[in-house]
Amino acid sequence: MQIMNTRLAALALGLGLVSFVPSAAAQGSDSCASAQPIAGFGLFPFNNAAATPDNSSCSMGHDVWFAWTASATGNVTVSTCGQASFDSFLAAFGSTSCPPTNSLGCNDDSCGLQSTITFAAVAGTTYLIEVGTYQNSAGGAGSIEVTAGGSTGGCQNPSVGPDVIVGDVSDVSNYGPVNGMVAYALGTTSCNIGDQELDWIANSPNHPVIGQNIYRLNDGRFEQIGQSWLKHGFTALQLNLCCACQTSSSGGSRLGVGCSDPYGSGLNGSQSGLGPRSEVNATTGAFLYPYGSQGQSGNAVYKRAQVLESDVLAANFPNATYYGEAQYVTPDDAAAGNGRNNVSWRPLTRSGTNLQVSSSTRRAEPALMAWQAADPTVDLQVVDIPGEGRLWVGSNCYDLGNGSFRYEYVVFNLNSHRSVGSFTVPVGVGAQVSNMGMSFPRSHSGEPYDNTAWPAQFLGDRVVWDTATFATNPNANAIRWGTTYSFWFEANIGPEVKTASLGLFRPGVQADPTADVCGPMGGSGNPSVSSYCTAAVNSTGLAGVIDATQIDLNARSMQLTAANLPLNASAFSLASLQQGFVANPGGSSGNICVGGSIGRVIGGTVLNTGGVGSLLEVIDLDLIAQPNGAVAVQSGDTWHFQFWHRDTIAGIGVPTSNFTNGVRVLFP
Question: Dihedral angle at the C-alpha atoms of 40, 46, 52, 53, nearest 10 degrees?
């Protein structure tokens, strides 16, 4: 009868069906060497309550063993989901030797506290299945369910090559105070979202290093207030936080495709495993091994993310919000060109000087995006240095209501080894500049970098902050990888779009990059046009793009154009003096990028995209439609424009609407 059922199961696998074979006698062996033989598909009872661990590569607790023989070729899923009441752990191996080799998968929590693994089986081959508990938790009676089919894992649309991201900032450990300083460690879970395994080789220069940063947002000013040394990875579990895990056959020395690996805050804060940032080239992922101060410990704040106690006290910053950021850097990820998505952030709550995680992790984003999330008028620019690293530049401008304006800037160096040694913002001639300042996270615990603040200089037509040159001091206080510096000043002139310059610190072949920021008006008699905001992809597969052209201040007219739009779709223009951002307003598929009082159909006519999917509208600058009547553009105004258009949801044809991106025009 067993033979007949096995044949039926094989036929079912070939047809994409499942035939269940009950095996009430199966209980599993406490020893790998005497694993209980089973075959086919169905429910197989086990009891590991009194079992002792066999110390397989998956490091589970009480375990029993089965030697399962495949009756057909194809994917096979083994699961305890709904079949056990305790915290189970499953593993499968492609050999029958003990201790087992050729791991095909390890899984702890796939469905609550129960487990699932999927692997490719070959008919007639015997595989070891280990059924255990999470570490030292209690076992019990249950069943494993063996079925045909299932996915062997990986992520949908994976990156090419190994690609590690921070899948979760999981928890916070708090330390100190020591001499007015507190410290923090952030727990992290890495995910390999690439299509190749990621090296995680202990005692070598081929494993990830993990940095942790603390940020504060207070009264519109975003600052990094602390940074840690780097946790050196040493082994990788094979879990399923981000995708379905294809467990690495190399055990803990590689993170499998689609797999995740948790490092709790206690582990990431373990001082003996923390090394200096100064030994790492984040562009290439290369670092020294053995690393400096390896194995060394110190007082409660040594090597951890140090923050001045005064920077987190509610008495000093009653309305502040806090954020934790973590970053992985590793050589094979960088070599695959995947080093620009390795940072994630999460909001933190404050109690006294203690911080704890809240809300959820924002994956593959720098913490700088928390500033924009709190205030959509913040402008963020990505600045890529060709063949090198990536910077982010943020800016915002505030009307103080007393004839003066405050200008705030943030520069985040994600992974540029060349680093940034100066930051320059042009200002209009005649501007009166005051209250210049900057802030940065301190280097500590023996890092060689200087902690001298950058002096601010107002040179009549620009404000400049800089540190000592590389030739003068290679350890000067440059904006190194994984750090964020903040700059600010006040002026008596309102904002327009300016081009800020970032002076690279280390010598190299790339030119110094620039970024659009807001700054005091003046120095140009021409309108300034810049794009902003991100448009959602429409049914054409592209995002709609708007532009402002043919601006004639004498004729008091300009043109708004748009491209990449659906054919023969109704559309109209929007205008506002305020930038904004709302995703999917009123059920739309797009993002509205204007805020405050919004004028509609500013050219006076509803438009149609026609047979080429584009728009052209002539605008009268003396008749800009607004909710309370048309207004004229004034000198010094910054107007924000966008197009709304009809659309359909691609693939299913359901009617919807969408928007282009936004265009900003500063009128001199």
Answer: 50
Other CB atoms within 10 A of residue 451 CB: 11
Report residue 4's pLDDT band, with 50, 70 and 90 as the boundaries: very low
pLDDT at position 433 is 94
- The answer for residues whose C-beta is within 8 angstroms of residue 617's C-beta and 6 or more apart is 559, 560, 561, 573, 602, 603, 605, 607
The whole-number pLDDT of residue 516 equals 94
- Residue 523 sits at the vertex; the CA angle it makes with 522 and 524, to the nearest 5 degrees, is 95
Give the length of the chain: 668
Strands 591-595 and 286-287: unpaired
CB atoms within 10 A of CB 626: 17
Calpha distance 385→407 (Å, rounded) = 25
Backbone φ and ψ of 15, nearest 5° = -95, 0
What percent of the chain lies above the pLDDT cut of 90?
74
Nearest Cα neighbor of 396 from 405, 387, 386 is: 405
Q: What is the pLDDT of residues 606-616, one digit of tens each?
A: 999 999 999 99
Return all residues near 226 (Cβ < 8 A) that are at least 6 apart: 183, 184, 213, 214, 305, 306, 307, 311, 441, 442
Q: Beta-carbon neighbour count of residue 415 at 10 Å? A: 24
- The contacts of residue 2 (CB under 8 Å, 6+ apart) are 21, 39, 40
pTM of the model: 0.63
Q: What is the pLDDT of residue 429?
A: 67
Using one digit for the tens of pLDDT, what is the confidence trace for 582-595? 999 999 999 999 99
| 219 SS3 class | coil
Is the pLDDT score of 630 beyond 50? yes
> Per residue in 244-274, pLDDT tens?
898 887 879 999 999 999 999 999 999 999 9
pLDDT at 637: 83
Q: Which of 648, 658, 539 is nearest to 592 (CA)?
A: 658
Two tokens at 524? 């140009």
Residue 32 tokens, joined = 């790998």
The torsion defined by the Cα of 270, 276, 280 and 282, in degrees rounded to 10, comes to 70
294-314 confidence digits (pLDDT tens) = 999 999 999 999 999 999 999
3-state secondary structure of 266: helix
Produce one character per residue of 146-177: b if its CB has 16 or more CB atoms within 10 Å, e if not: bbbebebbbbeebbebbbbbbbbbbbbbbbbe
Mind spelling out the 3-state secondary structure of 379-430? EEEEEECCCCCEEEEEEEEEECCCCCEEEEEEEEECCCCCCEEEEEEECCCC
What percent of the chain stands above pLDDT 70?
94
More confident site: 9 or 277: 277
On whether the CB atoms of residues 353 and 395 are closer than 8 A, the answer is no
**Sign of the CA dihedral running 109, 115, 120, 126:** positive
Give dist(CA 565, CA 563) in Å, integer: 6
